[in-house]
Protein: Carbohydrate ABC transporter membrane protein 1, CUT1 family
Amino acid sequence: MSTRALKQNATGYLFISPFIIGFLAFTFIPIIASLYFSFTKYNMFGSPQWIGLENYEKMFTGDPRYWQSLKVTLIYVAAGVPLRLGFALMVAMILNTASKAVGLYRSLFYLPSLIGGSVAVAIMWRNIFGDEGIINLLLVFIGVPDVRWFGDPTAALWMLIFLSVWQFGSSMLIFLAGLKSIPVTYYEAASVDGANYFQKFTKITFPMLTPVILFNTIMQTIAAFMTFVPAFIISKGTGGPLDGTLLYSLYLFIQGFEFFNMGYASAMAWIMLIIVGILTAIIFYSSKFWVHYESEGGK
Structure:
């Protein structure tokens, strides 16, 4: 290799070295460390003690709250992801037909996604649906008994789900891009054949959007499993009432940073990775039965 080639390679390595150093320091090494800690008893104040599979055994056989957190999270994902995607698609279709000020509307609808997962919005949500919040004041005003939205485990979980639906902006923009990519000639040909709006949606819009739906489903499923801030704020960090809002990420935080069971929290994180990986693989496998690509039409 010539001296000139060596200098060019060195220059390239120099430019990418910040990324490599950052990846090793903040991603790769912590991942390997967490895998090691998951087999230890570690509280961050002493040396980790190797205990083998004890953390994983405790998780599956000796910790009812773990199974409660997994149950709550699966309900949250199963209900929240379809609702968020459905609402995002509906808004995207409305914006796709708008011709005036569509950029303004797009920005306004995307705004909740920028602030939707913030601490401020979670606090606002808790105040709105609190015992003396505006919703209960309106109910009392019209003669309806007030509701303890965060006093019942089921109601509190649905408040979390509705808060997640409010953050539909990113999915909406992706759906809107997918709608813009569908050729108008398809709809014109369908109109000539006498197709109504529902037929156009089921025969053209939905099939053409299935790759976008697949992408949004995977991304929103992963994001739902990582939800932490709303559950922490609404339950005041406890996962209550009666562990009704004890999402997986919240319980992982409680174990790691309140009980200082960092080894156990690391084991929980790796099990979450496996669960999300399995769900993603299932979604990918199922896609061959319902996802349609435009190139397949010419086969």
